[in-house]
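Reopening this one. Same input as before:
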Amino acid sequence: MSAFSESRRTEVVVRAGQRCEYCHLPTRGQVATFPIDHVRPKAVGGTTDTANLALTCPHCNAHKWSDTDGGDPNTGRPARYFHPRQDRWEEHFRWSADGSAEIVGLTPVGRATVIGLRMNDADMVALRRLLAEVGLFPDVLA
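Same output, byte for byte:
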C-alpha cells in the first residue's frame, strides 16, 4: 500500500512529466513503479505537501534515501542536492556531448547530485542509451 493517495500520486507523476525528476528517466518502458520522494526528508522536518514531493526512479530514490547534500567533486566542498521544486534542471545538468548518455553536473549542486545519486552508474547509462535508441528517451542523444 502506498503512503500517498492515488490522486496525490497522479498529481506528482503528471507534474513530473512521467519521468524521474533527478535523472529524467522516463516511467514508460519501466517495470518498477517510480517512488515518490520527500525532497526534504520527513526525518528532518519535510512535509507531505506536493511542494516537497518529487517523482524518482528506483535508482535515484535508493541512493538519495534521506540525504539532502553531498560533496562537490571539483572543489571538495559541501553542496546541497538538486531540489526539483526550487531548481531548474537545465541550470545544473546537461547531457554529455559525446552521446554517451551520461549526465554532466554544471554546478556544485549538479555535481554533488550526480555523484551522490550515482546517476552515471554503468547500468543507468546503458539503460538511458537503450531507451534513447528505441525512441523512449530522445533527450539523451539530442
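So the earlier flakiness isn't reproducible anymore. For the record, Helices lie at 6-15, 58-64, 89-92, 108-116, 122-133.
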